[in-house]
Request: fold
Amino acid sequence: MIALIEHETCENIIQTYYKEIYSYCFAKLSYKQHPAEDCTQEVFVIFFSKHEKLSSTDNIRLWLYRTADNVMKAYIRKNFGHEVSIEDNPEVYNIPAESSFPDDSAEDPFEVLTEDEKKLLEAYYDTDYGQRSAAAKKMGISLAAMYQRVHKIKKKLRKDHDN
Reply:
């Protein structure tokens, strides 16, 4: 039986991580106070509505950051009307945003990917967390298969980047 997170623990989590998640949103949203506040509040609304489904062994901090990323992408799409490009998303490489590929490399880092892999990444990063199931279904695969394939693609990109 999975031990669920208690209500008191949720309050402690909010007190512990609220400022950290706010700072993350604030930096990612170009140091704009109101969008950062909106997104941070949404992250904790989602957390509070889903905390009963999380086990006590789940990495809450990681879950909050992933949720913050998804909330911010949805916020940007809703308020600024542009899509998130996989080329603009450093998470694809799992490297810091300020890192870059060597100057002598004029190649597109995505050249190592097949067209199907590129389409999968675009579908993955262009959807919010709750909509990924529909995106996977549209591509004819399960959500679990989508996550596995994205993980393999990230490993492929990291391996190519390290060479």
Q: What stands out?
A: Residues 48 and 133 are 22 Å apart (CA to CA).
